[in-house]
Amino acid sequence: MIEHISLRCRNSRKSRKFYQLALAPLGYGVDREYGDAFGFVQAGRHDFWVTKGNVGTPTHVAFHADAPAAVDAFYAAALDAGGKDNGAPGMRKDYGYAAFVLDPDGHNVEAVIWKEDLPASKRSRAARKTRRVRRKQRGS
Q1: Euclidean distance between CA atoms 18 and 125, whole angstroms
Q2: Of 54 and 121, the one with more pLDDT
Q3: Is the pTM above the cut of 0.90?
Q4: Which of 17, 25, 57, 122 has CA atoms 20 to 30 A from the CA of 51?
């Protein structure tokens, strides 16, 4: 089991604000601060940190969601916090219900609930919603 991961950010205070808003719908909050490092806690574990440092190749970080509504809320909160769309909420074939945003440093941040974790009724409802959103995006 991974104890924690630290994501390097050019401006950890700016990233703290972004993640504080984006991850709130997933149950995360900030409760540790060591200089320019900020620890996020969820369910009693500090498994995600943002720290000041050199940003190399952008990283992909995925956070588990308990429901499609939490994925939707993550996506909206992340965009409101200054993130950039990298994949609207929806079903991904053979994957699950997920959304992707780029954080201020270009890291690809995802919220996902795996397909097998969705009740069958929610799987079909989420798939229908995804088709509607994609049709709307295409202008059909």
Answers
A1: 30
A2: 54
A3: no
A4: 25
What would the DSSP string read from start to end of 66-112? SSHHHHHHHHHHHHHTT-EESS-SEEETTTEEEEEEE-TT--EEEEE
Structural contact between residues 50 and 12, judged by C-beta atoms closer than 8 angstroms: yes
Cα 113 to Cα 107: distance, rounded to the nearest angstrom: 20
In terms of Cβ atoms closer than 10 Å to its own Cβ (0-12, 13-18, 19+), residue 39 is buried
Q: What is the amino acid identity at position 73?
A: A
| pLDDT digit string, tens, across residues 21-53 | 999 999 999 999 999 999 999 999 889 999 999
